[in-house]
Automatic annotation (TrEMBL):
Record carries keyword Hydrolase: yes
GO cellular component: cytoplasm
Name of the molecule in the record: Glycoside hydrolase family 32 protein
Single GO BP term: sucrose catabolic process
SMART domains (UniProt xref): Glyco_32 (SM00640)
Domain Glycosyl hydrolase family 32 N-terminal: start-end pairs: 14-302
Transmembrane domains' residue ranges: none
The keyword Hydrolase appears for this protein: yes
Amino acid sequence: MSTKAPRDFRPALHYTPKKGWINDPNGLVYARGKYHLFAQYGPEPHWGDIHWSHAESPDLLHWRDLPNAIAPDGLGMAFSGSAVYDEENVSGLGTPDNPPIIAMYTSHGEQEQQSIAYSLDGESFIKYPGNPVIHNTKKPDFRDPKVFKNPKGGWTVVLAAGDHVEFYGSEDLLHWQKTGSFGPDGNYSKGVWECPDLFPLTLGGREVWVLLVSMGACPENLGSRTQYFLGNFDGETFTCDGSFNKPEFIDSGFDNYAGVTFFGTQERVLMGWAANWVYAGDLPTGEFCGQMTLPRTLSLVDTPLGGPRLSCAPVSDKLFGAPVPIDGSLPGEVFKLTVSGEGAADITLSKGGGEAFSFGVDSSGEVYIDRSRAGLRSFNADFAKPEYGRISAPRFFTGPWTLELTFDRSICELFADRGTRVFTQLLYPSEPYRHIDLAGNAKAEISLMI
C-alpha cells in the first residue's frame, strides 16, 4: 500500500496521529485537570498490531501526543475500552493521595476477555497482574467495556456481546459479576454490536438514560453507524422505552463511528472515529490514516416532529475568529459557515473544473449533504458509489432553519435543527475550494468565520 498522499489532507482541527492508523476512541477521561484521549492505534497506516495510543489536552482543542499506553501481550491485542479516575482508590491500586486512572480494555486473542491497566502519573500504565478480570470462553464477540459509576453505588461496565450488551457490577473495579443484559430489542439495526456507552441526560426535568451502540458495517446501514436507544437503567440493566419506531443514529452522515463519552466532565462530551469501516482502510491520506470527530456536547431535545431526540453541539466556540465579509470566495481550507433561512437552499463549495461539494435543505424539507462530486473517490470502489455520495434526513422542526458547517480540509461536520441532525463526512478535493454559491428559493443569510 502506498503511503504517499496526492496532497496534504491532514485536518487542522481534528485529531490525527502523526503516523500510522487510528480507529475507535478509547478511555476518554478527565483527570487532574487534563483530558485524555486514547485510541486504537497501529504503527502502519492500516489496521494491525493494535495498541492504545495516548494524547492529552487542557481544553479539548490542542492535543499533545504521549507514548503509547497499552501494548499487546500474551492475552492478545489491546482492543477498545474505557478509563475512569478512581478518586476514592476503591481498587487499592493507588493511594488516597495519588489515586489511579484505571483503563479497562478488551484483550483480543483466541477469546475476547476484559483486562485492566492503571496509571499513577497519567502517562505510564501498569497491567494488573490478575488479568483478565472478566473471563470469556464462549462468546466470539465480547468486547469494548465502558465503565461508569453506578448511581446506586459501586461501578458498572456495559459490554458488547454480538447482538446484545451485557452489564457487570463491581465494588472495587477488579471483581465483576453479571447483573443484566439488553437486546436484541428496540428496533435495533443490523450489524455486530460494538462500543456501547450508557449515561443519563435530562429532558423536561426528568432523567432519561441513553444507550449508544455502534453497529458494525452492513449494507442496510450504509456501513458502520452508531445507534442510540432511550430508556431507564435500574442499577442492574437497561430497559428501552420504545421511543422510536425505527433505528435512530447519532449521526446522519457516513463518517462517525464508535463514539463514546468522557468520564469526569460536567457536561456529557462525545468523540467518535471519523470514518466508515466500508472504506476506512483505503483513505488517500498517506502516512496517517484515521481522525477523530470534534468533541460534541450531548443533550436531549423534545422536537415537534420526532419527539425526544439526542442533540449534539460543538464543544467550543473558540475554534474560529469573528465573522468576515463574504464576497463569493473562500479564504482557505479551514472555516465555519453558518447559513440561516427558510425554504429550500443549496450551498455549494467549488474550485472550478467540475469538483463541488454541496449541502442544504431540499424541496422536500430534508437536510442533505452531497460529496458525490467533491473530489477524489476512485481510491475505493464503495466510496465511489452513488449511495455513499449524497445522503439526506428529515427535519425534526418546522419553519426557519440554521445550518452550521465546520470545514477542515478533508472532513466536514454539519449541524442542523438545534443539533438533532448532524452529518459527518470525509471528502478529498484535489485542490482547495475557492468559491461559495447559494441557490434555491430560500431567504438565507450566510456567515463565514476563519
